[in-house]
């Protein structure tokens, strides 16, 4: 039986004070919650503070991005071994904001995914279609080709230790949420696609939904057979919202 995972993607939000106070509140509001995996992904500069604030708790630390190389002349970048030193467990790769705003390609995303696994952290691979692609009826092709770029490089077996997040771009920060049925359809396709290569990896892989997840819709989304939790943006910045989303997943 797959456990559910609720991961908060704080994007470029927060301050020292916010990080300390919010993580303290999240800790106390999720106290004793051991039926669900939980993680918070703050900005890079807040990782040391967050590491201290989450120390000894059940909430894991995540990062929002990584460079594929171990070290080198890459100004402004941070490598997987560097993140690992700060107790980072999960690393988001290929978020649509990075694909769109920073021009990240499928190939770069696949290299980042491999770099995260190489130091035994867990990649959260984001895939998802734009509104235009959905209207063209090519959601399936778009999502599976993003997935194939990673499968071709890293193989199927590693998906037992990896997380996929389906995040339709049209549902991120827009006020529109995919219906549970729309999300389940894509999640089911992703799992079948994995299962064609390896049944066990497909069964173990946690597939999260992201895009306007909040306390009010989480239970219905997480009730779908192939939705194993959420990658939560805006709602994860509020401790009580985040805690009740975790509650819905338990
Ligand atoms: P929102 O939950 O704010 O729509 O963001 C989703 C997201 O992009 C999480 O990675």
Notes on the protein architecture:
The protein is built from eleven helices and eight strands. The protein has helices at residues 16-29, 47-54, 80-84, 96-101, 106-118, 131-135, 139-154, 180-197, 199-204, 215-222, 239-249; strands at 4-9, 36-41, 59-63, 88-93, 122-127, 163-166, 206-210, 229-232. Strands 1-2-3-4-5-6-7-8 form an eight-stranded parallel barrel, surrounded by six helices. Helix 10 (215-222) links the parallel strand 7 (206-210) and strand 8 (229-232). Helix 10 runs parallel beside helix 11. The radius of gyration is 17 Å and the shape is globular. It binds 1,3-dihydroxyacetonephosphate. The site of 1,3-dihydroxyacetonephosphate has 14 residues, from strand 8. Residues 9, 95, 167, 172-173, 210-213, 231-235 line the site of 1,3-dihydroxyacetonephosphate (13P).
Bound molecules: 1,3-dihydroxyacetonephosphate
Give the low-pLDDT segments. Answer: none
Give the % helix: 40-55%
N-end to C-end Cα span: 13 Å
Class by SSE composition:
alpha/beta
Average pLDDT metric: 97
SS summary, helix count: 11
Largest sheet: 8 strands, parallel, barrel
Strand content is 15-25%
Secondary-structure topology with pairs:
Elements: E1 4-9, H1 16-29, E2 36-41, H2 47-54, E3 59-63, H3 80-84, E4 88-93, H4 96-101, H5 106-118, E5 122-127, H6 131-135, H7 139-154, E6 163-166, H8 180-197, H9 199-204, E7 206-210, H10 215-222, E8 229-232, H11 239-249
Parallel strand pairs: 1-2, 1-8, 2-3, 3-4, 4-5, 5-6, 6-7, 7-8
The structure holds 1,3-dihydroxyacetonephosphate.
């Amino acid at each position: 039986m797959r456990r559910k995972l609720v991961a908060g993607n704080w994007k470029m939000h927060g301050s020292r004070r916010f990080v300390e106070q919010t993580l303290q509140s999240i800790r106390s509001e999720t106290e004793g919650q051991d039926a669900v995996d939980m993680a918070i992904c703050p900005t890079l500069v807040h990782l040391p503070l967050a590491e201290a604030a989450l120390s000894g708790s059940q909430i894991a630390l995540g990062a929002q991005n990584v460079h594929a190389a171990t070290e080198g002349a890459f100004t402004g970048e941070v490598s997987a071994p560097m993140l690992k030193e700060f107790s980072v467990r999960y690393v988001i790769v290929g978020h649509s904001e990075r694909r769109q705003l920073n021009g990240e390609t499928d190939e770069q995303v696949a290299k980042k995914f491999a770099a995260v696994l190489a130091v035994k952290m867990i990649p959260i691979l984001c895939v998802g279609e734009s509104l235009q692609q959905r209207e063209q009826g090519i959601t399936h092709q778009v999502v599976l080709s993003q997935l194939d770029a990673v499968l071709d490089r890293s193989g199927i077996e590693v998906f037992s230790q990896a997380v996929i997040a389906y995040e339709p771009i049209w549902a991120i920060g827009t006020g529109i949420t995919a219906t549970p049925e729309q999300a389940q359809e894509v999640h089911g396709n992703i799992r079948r696609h994995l299962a064609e290569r390896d049944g066990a990896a497909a069964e173990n892989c946690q597939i999260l939904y992201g895009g306007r997840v909040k306390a009010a819709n989480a239970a219905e989304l997480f009730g779908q057979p192939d939705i194993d939790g959420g990658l939560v943006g805006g709602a994860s910045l509020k401790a009580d919202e985040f805690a009740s989303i975790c509650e819905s997943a338990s």
